[in-house]
Amino acid sequence: MNASTYWLTNVLLEVAFEKEQDVVVGTQTALHHIQVKEGVIANIIAAGQLPDDGIPHVDAKGLLMLPSFKEMHIHIDKTYYGGPWKAVRPAASIFDRLAEEQVILKQQLPTVKERAAKMLDLLLGNGATHIRTHVNVDPIVETKNMELTLQVLGDYAGKLTAESVAFPQHGLLKSSSVERVKSAMRLGATHVGAVDPAVVDDNIEMSLATLMDIAVQFDAGIDLHLHERNQLGLYTMNKLADLTEEAGWQGRVTVSHAFGFAGPVTKAAEQLAERFAELGISISSTVPIGAVQMPIPMLREKGVLVELGNDSITDHWSPFGTGDMLEKANRMSELYGYADEYSLSRAITCITGGVTPLDNDGKQVWPVQGALADAVFVKASCSAEAVARRSERRAVMFMGQVVAGAF
Asked: Which CATH superfamily is domain 5-68+356-405 in?
């Protein structure tokens, strides 16, 4: 598909909800023809006879068109993916894992680009055309991982968009990495990161203040890894919210994992969620199962933007990643009981940056003229089925061009 202008024919689009006694029981769909021009949706018409305009046609064969996915938390610079199988070694604490990582980072440096590219291919094939990757910046590899990762992302610029987080995994303060992080920002990182200001950096206020200072200096977003639980985690997130408000950084801050919210919902957690919604602080989650369970339904009800990520595919932290954002939406739906048509259709917001074909009232709001032609084409009757059944992705489109699969 090399033409800059063409008709994409026989595309299945969601058009409305089906209701019985005001309860959504299904999703209505219809076939359409979509004109794509220079990476943008230029026209949408009901299926039937096409205009005799001489524009090339590409048959979508009745596949359901959904917004392409966003992988909002992953580490493509340190992975076993693309290499031989290796399980995780037992570790008693995060510090044991970091000690192990010091050795692994040196071993993996020669394969960073190769394995990062393989991870991007996996993500693309599963429907993601945007990723946010955290990239180690530390005393072991300095900014080498960032340099190599940015090169790979540059190679994929025609297939996806990307954000890169300068991530001091071994502690922003603990590993004396402030200047290293600044160097990574100068290289082109889009976000500044940190990890566990209390447990790792041992100074919540200084760690967060330094994080915000770097963000302001480089006019960059923030993405903070926070595994700290209970009151400690809530305290840290409230302090981050204070700094966000003081700096005017609304809508530019993400807390990854945010385990301070985990467990039974408390009034303090609800109040913090409301504050996050007001400040536009988003949460990136892997949808953990087991001992740590996030109150994702409460967060969404309070208006917090919750986005999902794999974190890893297979590395020294976890061997269980799939690289499949639809699987993440499926896991979230099963874990929290999103089994009905309406709830399943809303679950997709967590992997599309909030975009849905139908709004909450069932009005068609995507695709529309003028929107970027970024989409995934699925063998499913509706988005609810796609989430519940993890339907096959046949083709992935970025800026009007098929970048994975085929029609």
From this structure: Urease, subunit C, domain 1 (2.30.40.10)
